[in-house]
Amino acid sequence: MSELERSLVDLGRELDVPTEPDLVPTVLAAISPRSERRALPPRRLVLALAVLVLAALGATLAIPDARSAFLRIFDIGGERIEVVDDLPEVPVRTALEATLGERVTLEEARRESAFELRGLDAEPDRVYIGERGTVWFVYGTPSRPRLLLAQTPRLVADEPALAKKLAEQGTSVELVDVDDAQGAFLSGDPHFFFLLDRQGRVVEDGARLAGNVLIWDEGGVAYRLEGDFGREEALRLARALRPGI
Amino acid sequence: MYQGIAHRTAFLLTGSSADAEEAAQTAFVKAWHALPRFRPGAPFKPWLLRIVANEAHNRRRSAGRRAALELRATAAQPPVDAAPSPEGAAIGREARELLLAAVARLDERDRDVLTCRYFLELSEDETAEVLGVRRGTVKSRTARALARLREEVGE
C-alpha cells in the first residue's frame, strides 16, 4: 500500500460521520404485515397507482394538466407505459445526445458494464453510458440516428419501473413476444420518455420525444430498440441481437 | 448488525446526513423484500451495501449535488506518548483537509471507488459488488483515481 493509500485509510477513519440514527423502528414499521400493500381489487389498485404516479409527476415537473385521465397502464420490460387522454406540457429536449449520458468507447462500455452487452453484427457508431448504468448504442449520428439500442441492468429484485412513457391514444401499444420474453411495441404518435429513479420519481427535468419503440426485459436487463421501423422489423432486429459484441 | 456500515456508506456516498438516513432506511426495506433472491452462501454485506449505494446514488442525483460536501475530518486524538507539537498537529490537520478536498474534486466514479476501497476499507471484490462493476474495473478505476489524486495534491 502506497503512502497516499495509507493516508486515505487514515483519513477515512478520522472522518466525522454523524451518529447513526436508530432505523429499526421505521424499518420494522415499513416491513410489518400491516403496512404491506392491502389486497385492493385490481381496478382500485390501478387507480391507486395512477394517483400516486400523478402526484409524483405533478410534484416533480409541475405539470399543469395532471388532471389528464389514465386510460391504460402497462408494466413491460422495465418500463411503465401510461396511455393518457392528453399529453402534459413538459420541457422537451431536442438534442438527443444530451439525454444519453457520457460518450464512451465500445471497449469502455464493455468494461464498465456489469452485464454482457448485446448488439447487432455491425458495431454501433456511438456509445454512451447514462443514468442507472444504461448503455446506449447509436447507429447513425445523434442528429440523424437510424437506430437506438438501450440496455439497462435491473439491479434489485423489487425494483419498480426504470422508465416511463406517456402516450396519447394515437400511440398504439401492442404486446409482443421477443423470444421467451414479453415485450411491447409502441408506434404511431410520438410519446414522452422519462427516466425514473427507484422510487418511481422522474429524475430528469425534461422529456424526450420518442418514435417507434420495442421494449422487453430478458435476463435481468431491460432492452429498448427505437427507430423508424414497423413491428416485424423491430422484432427481427431484436432477435438478431447477439451477446458478446 | 449492519446498520452502522449501511449508514456510514450512505453518508460517505451522499455527503448529506439527511439523505444518508433516508437512503439507509429505504435500502433496509428493499433488502428485506429482496431477501428471497439473496443467494445463500454469498457474502451478505456487499449485497446489502449495493442496495444502499444504489439508494445513495439516486438521492445524490436527484439533488444534483456533489457528494462529500458535509464531510469533515475530526480533530484526531493522537496517542499521548506520540502527541505532536501544536505546529505538527496543525500541519497534520491541514494535510487531511487538503486530501479530503482533493477527493471531493474528483469525478463521481473516481470518488466512489476511493470511498469504497479506502474510507470504507472494502476489498476489491466487495467494491465490485457494491458498485455493480467488474473487479478489473475496480482495479483500473482505483489506479486512475489515485493518479488523479496525486496530481491534485501534488505528491
Fold and architecture overview:
The complex is a heterodimer of chains A (245) and B (155). Chain A is an alpha+beta fold and 245 residues long. Chain A has helices at residues 3-14, 24-31, 42-61, 97-100, 106-112, 231-240; strands at residues 70-76, 79-84, 92-93, 102-104, 118-119, 126-129, 135-140, 145-153, 163-167, 171-178, 181-188, 191-195, 207-210, 212-218, 221-227, 242-243. An eight-stranded antiparallel beta sheet of chain A has the order 4-6-7-8-15-14-11-10. In chain A, β10 (171-178) and β11 (181-188) form a beta hairpin. Chain A is extended and about 60 Å long. By secondary structure, chain B is mainly alpha-helical. Chain B has two domains: 1-70, RNA polymerase sigma factor, region 2, helix turn helix motif (Rna Polymerase Sigma Factor, Chain: A); 81-155, Arc Repressor Mutant, subunit A (Orthogonal Bundle). Helices cover 70% and strands 0% of the residues of chain B. Chain B is built from seven helices and no strands. The N and C termini of chain B lie far apart (39 Å). Residues 75-82 of chain B have low confidence and may be disordered. Classes of the chains: A alpha+beta (245), B mainly alpha (155). Chains A and B meet through α1 and α2 of A and α1, α2, α3, α4 and α5 of B.
* Whole-angstrom Rg of chain B: 17 Å
Which structural class do you get from the secondary structure elements of chain B? mainly alpha
- Helix count of chain A equals 6
Q: Based on DSSP secondary structure assignment, what is the total number of beta strands of chain B?
A: 0
How many β-strand stretches of chain A? 16
Instruction: Please bin the fraction of helical residues of chain B.
Output: over 70%
What is the arithmetic mean of pLDDT of chain A? 68
Mean pLDDT of chain B: 79
| Silhouette of chain B | globular
Which spans of chain B of ≥5 residues are poorly predicted at pLDDT below 50? 75-82
- Series of secondary-structure elements of chain B, N-terminal to C-terminal: HHHHHHH
Rg of chain A, alpha carbons: 21 Å
Q: How many domains is the backbone of chain B divided into?
A: 2
Helix content of chain A: 10-25%
Helix/strand-derived class of chain A?
Answer: alpha+beta
- Parts with pLDDT < 50 across at least 5 consecutive residues of chain A: 34-71, 156-160, 203-207
Q: Which chains make the largest contact? A: A-B, 39 and 54 residues
Q: Write the CATH architecture name of the largest domain in chain B.
A: Orthogonal Bundle
**Count of distinct structural domains of chain A:** 1
Largest sheet of chain A: 8 strands, antiparallel
Distance between the termini of chain B: 39 Å
